[in-house]
Amino acid sequence: MFGPRERSQLLSLFGSLFIVCLLLCGIASAAPSITLSRKSGPPTSGIRVSGRGFAPNVGVDIFFDTKDEVLVVTNDKGEFHDAGAYAPRGAHPGKHWVTALERNNDKGAQEPFLVQTDWDQFHFDPQRLGVNPYENVLSPKTVHNLQLKWSYTTVGGSASSPVVVDGVVYVGSGNGSVYALKAASGELLWSYSTQSGIFSAPAVADGMVYFGSFDNNVYALDARTGKKVWEFATGRQVQADATVVNGTVYIGSYDGKLYALNAKTGAKRWGFDTSFPVIDAPAVADGVVYLGSNNGYVYALDAQTGSQLWSYFATYYGVSFGPTVANGIVYVGASLGPIALNAETGALLWSYFTPNPVFSATSVVNGVVYFGATDFNVYALNAYTGAKLWSYKTGASVYFSSPAVANGVVYIGSYDDKVYALDARNGAFLWDYVTGDWVDSSPSVANGMVYVGSDDSNLYAFSLGHSDRRNRQGSVRPDLRTLRPDFNLKMSKPDATPSRAEL
Fold first, then answer.
1. How far apart, in whole angstroms, are the C-alpha atoms of residue 171 and residue 239?
2. Most buried among 132, 252, 423, 481, by the most CB within 10 A?
3. Rg of the chain in Å (alpha carbons)
4. CATH number at residue 494
5. Cα–chain-centroid distance for residue 23?
6. Is 98 among the domain residues?
7. Alpha carbons 474 and 497: distance in angstroms, whole number
8. pLDDT at residue 403 tops 90
9. What pTM was estimated for this model as a whole?
């Protein structure tokens, strides 16, 4: 017989075992769940998927929408980790669904993934390529159906190029304000006023908005609220667009300097003095900053220190717009047409003559250079030889509007008050829209929409008509019971995300 003390210990032990059993049963019967390494991104984004609550040692298919992409096997705890899925290249902007489903039954879990093809700084990226490689809604076959979706009126003209991030479009205005608007509707979210005009395009990175003002300052704002985080005083007006790379803001001023600033604090890291106004964005590639100045020179600087690597005298009229860098070549508009320089040495590779100056930036994609000139033409040249491929004549000069290229279409503004869409292959006219004044602003293309400002003080947003089925947003959440596994899939080791080349 057990004494009172022994009985108490046994009851306590049995109670503990009972609780453990309940917990184990709860774990075993818990509903499956998955987590994604990222919640949003452009088409071709790699997504690491991890799951728990599945049956032990069973096959689990990972779907993006209804496409079965990966087959993994759970461990003896019913878990799997870092299975490599991806957003297909054809996934339209909007909400999509990642599903993990046990093979041969309907037990699974789902999480949303937001496909976005954002345009987060002037000319899209730090290299200033001017190309959105993810656009998959607008194309030469659909762009003729573009319609005005909304416009927003500012004061003092809208020469600033808009940028689009996380469903918000940011743009500066000649009245000294930066506006944050809902990209889908044009509804004002917030505005921030400086003491003078804003002609530079904002740049958005890590939840911050960066831009310069004619009040001589560079600003950083909270992208969600519009509240000022920091400002940096230069010696004169700031017209240049900011380039943001790896926690550094590179921006020029009329005081003749290019500044490298800490993106979080605004602290100066270094400055490079050209002695003449720097009025446009630099390009940054492979640890080198490429810069144009009104002294007519193009410079290559070490991105970490600002030390000069080389310089090239391009034009007596000054370099109004910054360089573009692609495949080891630097492209710059000049007084007698664009030039191409060796990115490593600064040696001239080729030049192309235009009868009037080129004041806008070039765009480069698929071995072709696109640009507008003040001789009323938009040009396409072979990027490696400078040979002319085609030209298209607008109704007036193309001054400061730089081309945006996306999915086979070139978008550009002109002093004939129009924004154009041309076929990138041959320059054929596809679409245009007449605004109320000159179009100095450079278009941006994001999430199946085109955004551009006009000197009539309006920002315009265009999208395909509702009747076009290609204008759908995202996808419907799949029913687990309707998903069908791909029995040709080989078992995947859940330890790597597919490379872009595999997509």
1. 14
2. 252
3. 27
4. 2.60.40.1930
5. 47
6. yes
7. 23
8. yes
9. 0.90
Count of structural domains, the chain: 1
Q: Identify the CA nearest to 128 among candidates 324, 371, 359.
A: 324
> At residue 39, what are phi and psi to the nearest 5 degrees?
-100, -10
Closest by Cα among 177, 248, 238 to 208: 248
The angle at the Cα of 120, spanning 175 to 455, to the nearest 5 degrees, equals 30
Q: Which two tokens stand for residue 1?
A: 């017989």
Q: What mean pLDDT do residues 193-217 have? A: 95
What residues contact 494, with CB distance under 8 A and at least 6 apart?
49, 50, 70, 72, 80, 81, 82, 83, 84
329 vs 324: CA distance, rounded Å: 8
Secondary structure (3-state) at 33: strand
Half-sphere exposure of 180 toward its Cβ, with a 13 Å CA cutoff? 24
Tokens of 192: 């921030």
Terminal-to-terminal C-alpha distance of the chain: 72
Instruction: State the residue range of the domain holding 93.
Output: 31-116+485-502
Q: Is residue 93 part of a domain?
A: yes
Token pair of 133 as six digits: 């490689």
Beta strands in 6-136 (DSSP E): 33-36, 40-41, 46-52, 59-64, 67-73, 80-86, 94-102, 108-115
* 156 φψ region: left (φ > 0), alpha (ψ -120 to 50), beta (else): left
Q: Which residue has the tokens 């964005």?
A: 281
Nearest-angstrom CA–CA distance, 259 and 290: 13
Residue with tokens 């998927």: 49
By CB neighbour count within 10 A (0-12 exposed, 13-18 middle, 19+ buried), where does 111 fall?
Answer: middle
The DSSP secondary-structure symbol of 470 reads: G
Whole-number Å distance between alpha carbons of 72 and 232: 52
Among 84-93, 449-458, 470-479, where is mean pLDDT lowest?
A: 470-479
Confidence tier at 3 by pLDDT (50, 70, 90): low
Structure tokens at 312: 């090239």
Residues 18 and 36: their CA atoms lie apart, in Å, by: 35
- Report the alpha-carbon distance of residue 119 to residue 462 in Å, rounded: 15
Residue type present at position 273:
D
CA–CA separation, 45 vs 293, rounded Å? 37
Note whether residue 228 is domain-resident: no
- The candidate with the shortest Cα–Cα distance to 257, out of 228, 237, 243, is 237
Q: Does residue 502 register a pLDDT over 50?
A: no
Q: How far apart are CA 16 and CA 183, in angstroms?
A: 57
pLDDT number for residue 294: 86
Other C-beta atoms closer than 10 Å to the C-beta of 260 total 24
Residue 111 is assigned to a structural domain of this protein: yes
Kindly tell me the number of DSSP H helices and DSSP E strands found in the chain: 1, 40
Do the Cβ atoms of 404 and 130 come closer than 8 Å? yes
